[in-house]
Amino acid sequence: MKRILLIVLVFCVLLVSPLVASSFDYSLFWGPAIMDFTYPGVSMSYGMNFGLTKSLELSLWGTSTLTPKFFGDNRVGLELDYALLGVRTTSTAVVGSGINMLVGGGIMASTNNSYNLFIPTDVFLSLSTLTVGNPILERRERLAKLVVSYNWFQNKVGVIFNIALFDYYLTGTWRDYR
Fold it and tell me: 82-118, pLDDT tens digit by residue?
């Protein structure tokens, strides 16, 4: 029941947020990840970004292990990010800040709990130390993203590190202002 409630909540946020947003860009992204510095395998992050305002964006993302067990550990996050060094987009044909920094926070769901169910387990803070690009240019690279989470079931702090995330904008690009 909790899983269904979470899914309904996420879909409501995703459907309503573009309607009330002052910006209309969204993108798909992917990139390599380190889910735990002691974990021997390879992981990847993937997801979608939705521009809410000129400085705020909402991200729905997942991080999964690829080796040694394919999709053996999965985490899904809902994150709100704020651009620190200027607007990420102007919502016009004028380009926003091409170099930026993002700080954010949110909630993460995983199976890292005593029930072994896929439910919300963590709150987290994130910092993308450098972003290059913006929606108008159709691409953005986020470099050295660090996510520090607290799992209240295990009373444990966790870290997810992305050396690079590659955003590909589907709307809000220069093509939308011709």
Answer: 999 988 887 777 777 889 999 999 999 998 888 888 8
**CATH code of the domain in which 43 resides:** 2.40.160.20
Structurally, how many domains does the chain consist of? 1
Residue matched to tokens 């992305």: 162
pTM above 0.90, yes or no: no
Q: Are 33 and 61 in contact (CB under 8 A)?
A: no
DSSP string, the chain: -HHHHHHHHHHHHHHHHHHH-S---EEEEEEEEBS-TT--S-EEEEEEEEE-SSSEEEEEEEEEE-SSSTT-SEEEEEEEEEESSS-S--SSSS---SEEEEEEEEEEEES-STT---EEEEEEEEEEEEEEEEGGGTEEEEEEEEEEEEETTTTEEEEEEEEEEEEEEEESSGGGG-
Place of tokens 């990010």: 81
